[in-house]
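COMPLEX REQUEST
Ligand: zinc ion
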Amino acid sequence: MGAIKFKIEKKLKGQLGRAGILETPHGKIETPAFVVVGTNATIKSVNVEQVKECGTQVVLGNTYHLYLQPGDRLVKDAGGLHKFMNWHGPTMTDSGGFQVFSLGVAYKKGITKFAKTEDLHDDTNEKEENKISPQLAVIDEEGVTFKSHRDGSMHRFTPERSIEIQHNIGADMIFAFDECTSPSAPLQYQKEAMDRTHRWAKRSLDYHKSQPHSEKQALFGIVQGGRHEDLRKISAKQIGGMDFDGFGIGGSFNKEDMGTAVKWVNEILPEEKPRHLLGIGEPTDLWEGVENGVDLFDCVLPTRLARNGSIYTKDGRVGITNARFTKDFSPIEKDCGCYTCQNYSRAYISHLFRSDEMLAGTLGSIHNIYFIVNLVKTARQGILDGNFRELKEAFLSRFRPNTA
Ligand SMILES: [Zn+2]
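STATUS: Structure written out below.
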């Protein structure tokens, strides 16, 4: 008996999208759902009641960060992640792979899940950069040795160690250890990394199953393969064939064809298990992902942007410190049901950001979390009601990406 149960309620006609219910040891998640990221076992600047009021169903902690501070043993001694952070709903942890590898030589500065097409044909700059940037992660067949970004101390993750740490942290859903490659890494390297990720997936699974009480946590395998159709399909077949409880879709995509890449994978993955698109959370990408059969998304973007005063609206993102808001006494969005819009004006929030007040990040984060969580809920309802396409088109015709 696995830790989770997944039931598909309704499918999008002629497409991969579906609405479902994911049952975890800490409650149900109506999918598709947006997973709010709480890197250090906290969603920055908001408390768990506020996170919940935004409609959040599930939160994700970062294995790499929690391992370094306060340490996974301490989280275990505290009674596990739920108790430690006072979030009693469903939780996830990532494998730590993305953070470890993004510190390493495979990546250049300005880590992103997306590559622009022109970057991918130009690896000369990257070689130059690698010469001067310190190498913080070294990969071998067994695992990866890396330097802490906090104090420079040396650490080592293997698939077994990543799972052991995630067992200690105790989230409901955990991920196999994978290697994330840079979008601009050469094809040959992407293939090597993918093959290694498959071997690590098997080791993660074997270790997970060998441990007592492993049935209390669901293990997701991660499909890699970069932006290459053949690699993505091979990876989906191999990882999809293993006895995981669900699947993550990791790595990098071309912004222009993210939906296509997700489709390649989801056409192959077993339909009856949940799929999580890792690290993707821009509104336009969420619609694409839902349409192509993604059940869960996570991304730091809504909260990170909010703390920088970049606020989501149905017309696109706006910089709240823009001069045009200083005397604007209307809410961020008139029809928004969030606590921020119910109680505060654009002028007040703009003032808080200009004054570097702590409440600024809180009010901004509440609105952005509410916006993204409810956008995915709307998409879900569209699948159930049979008007997904209309809702998607209405949203996309109005929303201008990256306006601020
Ligand atoms: Zn709002």
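REMARKS: Residues 105-112, 116-133 have pLDDT under 50 and may be disordered. The CA atoms of residues 60 and 92 lie 5 Å apart.
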